[in-house]
Design a protein that fits this description.
160 residues, two-stranded antiparallel sheet, mainly alpha, elongated
Length: 160
């Protein structure tokens, strides 16, 4: 239990956080994000992976080969950090780099056969972790929750 959780619970186990805080969506999302990030980070670490590995492999599988800049845009990984992520993936033979035939100064990144196998393994790991994260919700509630989060994120992405 983290300090904030311990502070929320008096000796009788009932929450002591003021209702006005417990009703704030921003606070709830923030606290859930911390727990979600920790769960995903620790779960992926057990299989020697990181969330950025998954993001790059998924992007390459779903949208095909791309440059570092294209992958940065697809995944939200800063261009300066993308080099390190791609180096890690290339060292594990999960991606292949080749000079772009249209611009020899740029590399095209492609997912390898081993990368596709790793992506399938990571899909399973993340499915299990999401089952743990969303355990209190029914399948219909999980779908609705994801739809609502997607709508909120899409709205705020368009307006920023």
């Amino acid at each position: 239990m983290i300090r904030a959780e311990a502070a929320d619970m008096p000796d009788d186990g009932a929450p002591k956080t003021p209702d006005r805080l417990r009703r704030r969506a921003s606070r709830l999302l923030s606290q859930l994000t911390v727990r979600s990030d920790r769960l995903i980070h620790e779960g992926l670490a057990q299989v020697d992976a990181r969330k950025w590995h998954y993001a790059v492999l998924a992007s390459l599988q779903d949208y095909g080969p791309g440059s570092q800049a294209a992958l940065s845009g697809r995944t939200g990984i800063y261009r300066s950090d993308m080099v390190g992520v791609l180096n890690e993936l290339a060292e594990r033979d999960l991606v292949e780099r080749a000079p772009d035939p249209d611009d020899r100064r740029r590399n095209t990144i492609t997912i390898s056969a081993q990368g596709r196998r790793q992506l399938r393994r990571l899909d399973k790991v993340l499915d299990d972790l999401h089952d743990e994260l969303l355990a209190p919700l029914s399948p219909a509630e999980r779908d609705q929750f994801v739809q609502l989060l997607t709508r909120l994120l899409d709205h705020h992405t368009r307006t920023s």
